[in-house]
Amino acid sequence: MRNNLRNVWDINASQDNAIEIWLKTQGIPTSGKNLLILWSRFSGKGGDIHIEHDTSYWGIKQIVHRVADMYDAIIITGDKGYIKERAKKYDETAEEINRYYGPQKVFNITEFWKGNSSELKAWGGNTRLGQFKLYDYFQRHFQNVKHLGFRSGNLEMMAMLGYTVRYMEEKGSESGGRMTIWFNRGDGETEKGGKATGYERLLLGEPPTRSGKFIQYQIQEINREMRERKEPFQQKINELENAHEKADSPAMKNLNKEMKKIDDEGDARKKKYAGSDLSPYRKDQQPPRPILKEEKSNYSEGFNTDDMDIILRYLQPLDWVERETSYEQYIPQRTKIYDRLLNMETL
Q1: Residue ranges under compositional bias (Basic and acidic residues) (predicted)?
Q2: CB 3.0 to 4.6 Å from 44: which of 54, 55, 124, 144, for a disulfide?
Q3: What is the spatial distance between Cα 120 and Cα 24, in angstroms, rounded to a whole number?
């Protein structure tokens, strides 16, 4: 399958010279040992689904600070953000690290495909399929390349092309189950015996964004309420089953009908949180109804310590020996004081 994809998409070494020229214009190393590619996703807040799987600028900062010394280069790619001007936060993170190294180490190339330079167009970097040639170049010119981001079509493509990929997802994700059929069961194959694509998951305790944490909590509360409402019906079903009641008896059918009714009501309520209803931008003609700042104020931005440990276990090279750096490696979560921000906005 991978060879077929490469042939169909014309992904090969034919544009290496042109790619190398473009990389040099960006100051990006053209070869090395360890390369990390961090994928930025903001399609949820941009009007698509699953806001909880969008990237946290602060979370990227945490990852970069923690592992920068382990890599020859770190590339931040993908979406700039639903507010494009905020992409400068990636530049700020890169500058925080780069000032301590000779050659630059961290590079923000988010939405590079929208560029208009002749060097970019020379290898098709301004086209959808042409973009993939860049990551294939990296795969062949660095000894160890790792990709990390939240679940997205681009990351899935990276795995299908044979690269080392992990996508992050929080426990209890309503849409997470459908992806498990593609996971490696330990022998290179899926549970159904197909060849595993390499699209594997890092299961985190919570999303890194405040919006994601808010959504996770709301869904957990709906699920808890559903379980409590269904419990007496389930107990009655268990009693009837122990009494050898037939599954198609009127009593059993009515109980299962009530259970399904509760499930349907819960699913309808959860749909609000999984779709684009809470997005600050809408692609349809409906007015946006984003999550209020007050509703997010109880949640911290960034990854918690346990989740950072999970991420580090994937990112840390096998031969790495920890050493001190001149910059802060451990960046904690942070809390925004919205009252102060709101007061500043009214000045």
Answers
A1: 280-298
A2: 54
A3: 11
